[in-house]
Amino acid sequence: MLRLLLDEGISPAVAMGLRRRCHGMEVFAMAEWEGGNFVGLPDSVCLREAAVHELTLVTYDRGAISPVLKEWMEEGITHGGVIFVDEKTISPAETGQLVSALAGLAKEPGDWEWTNRISFLRDRCDTAFPITSKLQNRKRSLPDLRRRWPDNSR
Hints:
Blueprint: E1 4-6, H1 12-21, E2 27-29, H2 43-52, E3 56-59, H3 62-75, E4 82-85, H4 95-107, E5 118-121, H5 129-137, H6 142-148
Parallel strand pairs: 1-2, 1-3, 3-4, 4-5
Helix pairs in contact: 1-4
């Protein structure tokens, strides 16, 4: 089961939203995890401790985490998984959108093994595009699809 640790740049409101939306899911904001003792520490320290607790790190900080992952891969060091979020896709200010996207991801994997897995989170709206193709075959347009399925995550 997917267990998440949110990087310190992600609002604790995301953790609260995920707990409400995905009952039983373990998710921690960095500020609350381990008494907040990991806030401000190097990414490698947080990532290593997350692995010990079998937590997958969710972060916008691809620039800092990617070199650590590369180095660890070369050295054979394992991690608990990383989910990268692109701020151009989901703004850090859009708490509801991030909650929705992470909740959707949590439903997908079921029994996926997250050790050493690296994933790039997409907005849940992206998953509607295959449906759009089917609807367009029935002479419906994308705006019609959006009227039928509004984004209720905000």
